[in-house]
Amino acid sequence: MNDSLLDITRDRGYGEMQKLLEAVLGARQRASPKGNAIAAAIRERNSEKVRALLDASPEILHAGDERSNHPIHWAVMTRQIGIIDELLARGADINAQRFDGARPIQLTNGDYHYRGWRDVPKETATTPGEALDHLIAASL
Fold first, then answer.
1. Cα separation of 28 and 70, whole Å?
2. Alpha helix ranges (H) inside 57-140
3. How far is the C-alpha of 103 from the C-alpha of 111, rounded, in Å?
4. Res. 12: pLDDT tops 60
5. Domains of the chain and CATH, by start
6. Quick one: pLDDT at residue 24?
7. What's residue 29's pLDDT?
8. Eight-class DSSP state of 106
9. For residue 28, what pLDDT is reported?
10. How far is CA 43 from CA 67, 90, 114, 119, in A?
11. pLDDT number for residue 108
12. How many CB atoms lie under 10 A from the CB of residue 35?
């Protein structure tokens, strides 16, 4: 099951719990529906759309999606070096933390919901090790 806590509260009609979770995640991890569009564009591997979204709303660079993944987390999980570099050039935090404390460098082979071995397209040339090496080099 890939439902987020927010999905579960919505599905079960727990409106007060949904509002509380949205407030906490928004305050602590900048998680909000605003981050969903850029997360989807990154997963679609659509760099033009990513740039257009960032140009139109630069603040989404630091917005988390509903699971609190920032764009930099998605760029790393999908192993897109060009998008990683684009986000870093625009000021993304290479050490951004999600609700579970995970930083981009810990997600080079995906996470609980987006698995590198399952969800990254097979034709992707960048390996998890190469993504890790790139992040290390970028942090120096």
1. 12
2. 71-77, 81-89, 116-119, 128-139
3. 11
4. yes
5. 33-139 (1.25.40.20)
6. 75
7. 62
8. G
9. 66
10. 14, 19, 10, 9
11. 97
12. 25
E strand or H helix at 37: helix 34-43
What would the two tokens of residue 34 be? 């605003």
- Residue count of the chain: 140
Which residue shows structure tokens 């257009």? Answer: 52
Burial class (CB in 10 A: 0-12, 13-18, 19+), 47: middle
Q: How far is CA 4 from CA 9, 77, 138, in A?
A: 9, 18, 31
Write the single-letter amino acid at 81.
I
More confident residue, 133 or 21: 133
* Residue predicted with more confidence, 19 or 82: 82
Q: Which residues of 88-122 are buried (b: 16+ CB within 10 A; e: fewer)?
A: beeebebebbbbeebbbebbbbbbeebebeeebee
Rounded to two decimals, the pTM is 0.83
